[in-house]
Write a structure and sequence with these properties.
The chain has about 450 residues and is mainly α. The protein contains 15 helices and no strands. It has one domain (about 20-210, about 220-445): MFS general substrate transporter like domains (Growth Hormone, Chain: A). It is globular.
């Protein structure tokens, strides 16, 4: 059920076109999720960096990215080249993002944790700048190449499916580290392989996007400041932006604390977690047609609520998995994937609809700034998750290490990890439902300023 202005439909994109355009989401998730799952753990358990310092080192450079993403979006709106407006930025972005995955786990030994944390902050900033150059124009193109609510949901559904595959790659990163010998050497070898996959899939999307028709340039874009003012007056977008912030903040808390949760709370081997996430991926992909069908019958806010409540149930069930056999975790992965696939599809579909409606009503190219702010918001929220985890487990007394071994932790520290992964995570997700319902109460006329 659509609640914004509907646009005329165009010819449906072919499956090969959608495949090529969506493949870069594998690299997108590898860049975002593999470091999210492993980097804080790598910093505290291999580099002897205190958890609060490690979380801060991840968070601070991403504050700057809040300004980079809108600049990339605005610049791509104004760009006019023979290769289009978006692709010239996506090409160097994919290369830089892949290189950063390698550098995350190739940290020179400076002899002081603060120096190594500072080095990683610099690499994170450079890497996420490249990530912005790819993801902001790519998200804009997802709105430009498809018209009509149904076709935009179809594009976003393909993207969510490839995001799930990228998540699967990321989930096996820990197992791959062990397969390649473990220790810091294993992390370095893993990063070489994952960095190559990240860059390759993103560059394939760059090549494939050249064959897709996108909306023509409709005139000079307003200045960045004036665009911020226009977006600030769009109550519907701002409310959805806050929903996205809470969603990604919870996701960041979950990703960053999951490794600690598995090791110290439920005593599950990280090398086997990939199988659980594979089940999660299967749950996302298998249920996408069902969510798409349901979206034609039920309001987006209803579907979002169902998805979030399903995810919260998943968090509670994890508390009963202490020491259980791997087979018990697979149904949990399927249920979590089905829930996440629903609220992700709903949120991205709403964003695409808002951008398309704004362009149709104003005739201005503001998709770039909308996408830039959205992705900057996501990165800041995701980094905030790492900061929350680092600070909270530090307050509960987590002990860092330089050997890679799981240092003995007090019962208080273990409680802090469980509280972070389940309690804080769930509270943030439930709060996002409140703001999603507030979004639904804003009339469609507010969708455009």
């Amino acid at each position: 059920m659509s609640d914004v202005i509907e646009l005329p439909s165009m010819a449906r994109l072919s499956p090969p076109a959608l495949f090529g355009f969506s493949l870069g989401m594998i690299g997108d998730r590898i860049f975002r999720d593999a470091p999210a799952l492993l980097l804080l753990l790598f910093m505290t358990n291999y580099l002897d960096i205190p958890p609060a310092m490690a979380g801060t080192a991840i968070f601070v450079p991403k504050i700057l990215i809040v300004f980079v993403d809108p600049l990339v979006g605005t610049f791509s709106d104004r760009l006019n080249t023979r290769w289009g407006r978006r692709r010239p930025l996506m090409l160097p972005g994919g290369i830089l993002a892949g290189l950063a995955v390698v550098l995350f786990f190739h940290v020179p030994h400076f002899g002081a944790p603060v120096a190594e944390a500072a080095y990683l902050s610099l690499i994170i900033f450079l890497g996420f700048t490249g990530y912005s150059l790819f993801t902001v124009p790519c998200l804009v193109m997802a709105s430009e190449i498809a018209e009509g609510a149904e076709e935009r949901r179809r594009v976003m559904s393909w993207r969510v499916g490839f995001m799930a595959i990228g998540l699967c790659f990321s989930a096996y990163a820990g197992a791959f580290v062990q397969y390649l010998g473990g220790g810091q050497a294993g992390y370095r070898r893993m990063s070489l392989v994952y960095g190559a996959i990240c860059a390759a899939t993103m560059l394939i999307t760059v090549a494939a996007s050249g064959k897709l028709a996108a909306a023509p340039h409709t005139g000079p874009a307003p200045s960045l400041l004036s665009q911020f003012r226009l977006v600030a007056g769009n109550r519907r977008y701002l409310m959805l932006l806050f929903v996205g912030f809470l969603q990604k903040l919870a996701e960041g808390v979950g990703y960053t604390s999951f490794g600690y949760f598995c090791i110290y709370v439920v005593h599950q081997n990280l090398s086997g977690i990939g199988d659980v996430v594979l089940a999660t991926v299967a749950g996302q992909i298998i249920t996408q047609p069902l969510w798409l069908k349901a979206s034609q019958k039920y309001p987006p806010v209803t579907l979002y609520t169902v998805g979030v409540l399903g995810w919260c149930l998943n968090l509670l069930l994890w508390l009963a998995m202490d020491g259980r056999a791997q087979i018990w975790l697979l149904p949990l992965g399927l249920e979590g994937g089905a829930a996440a696939g629903g609220f992700l599809m709903v949120t991205l579909g709403m964003l695409s609809q808002l951008m398309a409606a704004d362009t149709a009503a104003t005739g201005q190219d503001r998709e770039g700034v909308y996408s830039g702010l959205w992705l900057a918001n996501e990165k800041l929220a995701f980094a905030g998750g790492a900061l929350i985890v680092g600070v909270v487990i530090g307050l509960f007394g987590f002990v860092q290490s330089s050997t890679g071994m799981a240092a003995p932790q007090t019962a208080r520290a273990v409680l802090g990890i469980g509280f972070t992964y389940c309690g804080i995570n769930m509270l943030i997700y439930l709060t996002s439902i409140v703001f999603m319902r507030a979004y639904a109460r804003i009339g469609p006329a507010s969708a455009v300023s």
